[in-house]
Specification:
Layout (H helix, E strand, L loop, with lengths): L7 E5 L6 E5 L10 H10 L1 H30 L4
Antiparallel strand pairs: 1-2
């Protein structure tokens, strides 16, 4: 019978006085949260590239419109 895999690994160096403990989430025991899945889907791959391009275009237009309106009121003739 083999021991079950754990997300915690403990190792002690022979010549060192420090112990090393590392915790890693295993994909089989824990499910990713909804936010993690959504961000992974929207930020990677072809869909991630499309989202970033659309976000950049939207940001450009927001800054352009704000600059236009601000310039209009600053340089408005009296």
């Amino acid at each position: 019978m083999q021991p079950q895999e754990s997300g915690v690994h403990y190792s002690r160096w022979e010549d060192s006085s420090r112990d090393e403990v590392s915790m890693a989430a295993t994909s089989g025991t824990e499910e990713a949260s909804c936010c993690d899945r959504t961000s992974r889907k929207l930020c990677t791959g072809k869909l991630g590239v499309a989202v970033k391009v659309l976000g950049g275009v939207a940001l450009f237009w927001v800054v352009f419109i704000l600059g236009y309106v601000t310039g209009y009121y600053v340089h408005k003739c009296k």
